[in-house]
Amino acid sequence: MKYLLNLLTLKSLRDRSQVEQLLQYIIEEPLEDADNKRSFKFPFIACEIFTCEIDVILRTLAEEGELMNLLFSFLEPNRPHSALLAGYFSKVVVCLMLRKTVPLMNYVQVHQDVFCQLVDLIGITSTIMEVLVWLVAADDHVYPNFSDVMQWLADSNLLEMIVDKLSPSCAPEVHANAAETLCAITRNVPSALATKLSSPRIFGHALEDSHSKSGLVNSLSVCILLLDPKRSAINSPLMYSFLNQLMYEPPIPVNSETINAMLPQLDKMSRRTYEYDEDVSAIATSVVIVYCINIFIILTFNIFVKII
């Protein structure tokens, strides 16, 4: 009897009208006079139903264009974006990412404004940032056509939009989330998107325009990761022995153009740290020092390899 009831419940929940109602609980803010059930209980239950990863329910959502439009209408700029509903929205999208990857990516490739809207909302809550990170920094275990998706993203202006969020006009929380997204892309090597991020023309204006406290620190955090020695391509077995590095895969090369583009900015950034208050100056100075150390290590490695 219990098994039969479960089947009847699943059959009911997978109906398009039921899935639409569940989505409305997740993306629509309740009215001011709504009771606690509508404000808190129903959105929570709706999110739990989707994230239970029941295939028939997710399939109904992923394969129905109008339902996907309804889900991503949450990102529209004229809507309110509470942290509570943003969290539920993010959980549903990540669940689709894991279980219905191909339909989801097919949808966002057709509706490229999704990425623009995610970038615009990157500062409202870290959960929105997590959705963007899942979409742009997933590995080949998630995407069946990983290289094609990364190349498509690299050919778009997505990276430029994220880097623009490091500008002084943006709030500190926007700087932090944009930097975290760029760092996630940087770690996802090798990929066309990570390679494009290493290009000087992408991050150059982030360094030049970092006239704000958080903008400078967060821009430098991305640069430091780009110069991470663990990502350096030291192909010589002697160098591996010299550094005593035990790795399963050869490290990724650091773009020499990246290093050359960063060097002229060091003096400017060092002087700029003294323009801030004592606490921020100390943080920024520490970041610049680490930045210089990383550049020195990379240059030393490159010279050593040439000698060998």
Automatic annotation (TrEMBL):
Source superkingdom: Eukaryota
Family: Belongs to the SAPS family.
Membrane-spanning ranges: 280-305
Keywords linked to the UniProt accession: Cell cycle, Membrane, Transmembrane, Transmembrane helix
Gene expressing this chain: LOC107913709
Keyword Transmembrane applies: yes
Pfam families hit by this protein: SAPS
Lineage summary: Eukaryota, Viridiplantae, Streptophyta, Embryophyta, Tracheophyta
UniProt name for this protein: Serine/threonine-protein phosphatase 6 regulatory subunit 3 isoform X11
Listed InterPro entries: SAPS (IPR007587)
